[in-house]
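Appendix B, record 7
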Amino acid sequence: MVKEYDLLVIGTGSAGSITATKCKKEGWSVAIIDDRPFGGTCSQRGCDPKKVLVGATELIDWNKRMQGKGIEEDSKINWTELMEFKRTFTQSIPEDTEEKFEKLGIDIYHGKAHFQSETELKVCSDVLKGKHILIATGAKPIEMNIEGEEYLTMSDEFMELEALPKKIVFIGGGFISFEFAHIAARAGSEVHILHRSESALKHFDQDLVKMLIKRTEEIGVHVHLNTPVNGIEKCGNSFVVKGEQDDRQVEWKADLVVHGAGRAPALDIDLEKGNVKRDKQGVCVNEFMQSISNPHVYAAGDVASSDAPPLTPVATTESHVVASNLLKGNNKTANYPVIPSVVYTVPKLSSVGMSEQEAIDSGLKIYVKSQNMTEWFTYKRTNERAAAFKVIIDQEKDVVLGAHFLGGGADELINLFALAIRFQIPILELKQMPFAYPTIASDISYML
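Structure tokens (predicted):
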């Protein structure tokens, strides 16, 4: 028996749940499907629980920085207690999410969805037909195609470890590896990051990345650039990671090997049976987030091949756009304002707007101001070892084009510069803005 709905949503994170909720409130019949615990990645296995762990490492780092500056006793992480605290934020999410959908009258299905036709999905033994289908399945770790790939631990598994291993190797030099490496090292593990190219965290300002790598190494993390990995071998209860450095074979022993080499759209749902075209970035969509090959299908979030980065605020924006287009007919296009991005290492690294190279290539008349801030009061009072900024300014329009920060307050500071870029606030007005003093924001006038 085929069950028919106005809308089928695959995925229960922000990219799917917003559209499902809005359409249901307008009287549509809606079904939502997920083969993992309901609630999506960010709240359960990504951004939110990760930041709980980062909070503990910030405390450890601050304590160590202040040794001899008025603080005497050392502190350490109790991993088991930290995990228990983290679960207080995540453990109720699946049940709460399901309860929310049930109260709205949204039918829920647990299982893997696969296209049967342009308008039909099969979930376990159920066949569901939808006038419209939203793909919001998020991302998954890329396939590395190396020998022993099955021994890799994924990021969500790392955040559920009951005990932290003594020796950990992270493969890849992106967000996941650096953030988790900072957590693990400050919790007492020996940590290595193996990255295949010479530039880690490639979407961030490389001058600041170099400073972050130096600080990363100072806390005990071994960062190996230009080190491609070609295999993992299991030896008893441990592993041997095989890689290359300077045209020679090198090996690292580890108790745990973590996948940090990037993520790709999770689209193993038989798209070809649904006549849904895709490229490397995901489902090929038009300006309305609608599939270019199957008008019944829309996509939002990490699975949509759009110009925006795979970030939670983007998924939220796109889900609102899809909801509007479903309910009112294609009337709304996805508008991507400048979107700040943060690496939650300690210190944090952040970026928004143009990079220095992008500004140079644009042909605009630009001015770049950058400085090490460790001797500024804001950072000297907490004895920070790495703090710096780079701001790119359009000299003719007298506005900020891009901003990049390294330091304890980089995550909040970047939001203020995102506002300045989006609303084209003149430099003079930014300089004259009387922020509360002494705060990180009160330093802005000296950055322009």
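Remarks on this record: The chain has a mean pLDDT of 96. The chain is about 30% helix and 25% strand.
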